[in-house]
Amino acid sequence: QKDWEDSLSFFLMDNFCHCSFRCGPPTSAPTAFNLGFPRDLTSHFTFLPGQKLGKGGFGTVHLVEKKTTGEKFACKEIRKALDPAIATQQKQLRHIENVSREIAVLKKLKGSLNVVNLEAVFEDDTSIYIVTECCCGGELIHKIGIRPYSEQTV
């Protein structure tokens, strides 16, 4: 089991980590992370005022509109830095690795059935922005109880 986990960890770091720092324990606390994503989100998308779709422990999801087509997308804004009062260097590193892994998985599964489609990823000094198709039907957990589903439908 441990060998498999180590192999997966090295595979993810070698193939998906875009960090500008070495993905090992940092020697000092980095002040800003550069993950290598484009920094021109607002050149491509417009945040729609008052259209916050949700909020979680690490960020917020906004409704955005693609400037060239008018198509609407969900934009997950994730803070790069955790609260320094409660986050150790190790937790901060894990946070960035988890975000990088989430992006890598979305890239790998792009076009798969029943997986949200990744449109683009951007960053600035404080946040990472993951732009995906907008699934505006609400949360699945709230829909399951509305009507019974057959085994075949599920």
Question: What do you see in this structure?
Answer:
This protein is an alpha+beta fold and 154 residues long. The chain has helices at 2-16, 41-44, 89-108, 140-144, and strands spanning 45-55, 59-66, 72-79, 118-123, 127-133. The protein is built from 4 helices and 5 strands, in the order H-H-E-E-E-H-E-E-H. The two termini are 32 Å apart. A 5-stranded antiparallel β-sheet has the order 1-2-3-5-4.
Uncertain stretches: 1-31
User: Taking strands numbered 1, 2, ... along the chain, how are they ordered across the largest sheet?
Assistant: 1-2-3-5-4
The helix/strand order is: HHEEEHEEH
Question: Termini distance?
Answer: 32 Å
Class derived from helix and strand content: alpha+beta
What's the total count of β strands? Answer: 5
Which overall shape is indicated by the principal axes computed on the Cα atoms?
A: globular
| Percent helix | 25-40%
Major sheet size, sense and barrel closure: 5 strands, antiparallel
Give the mean pLDDT: 78
Report Rg.
18 Å
Instruction: List the total number of helices.
Output: 4
Strand content: 25-35%
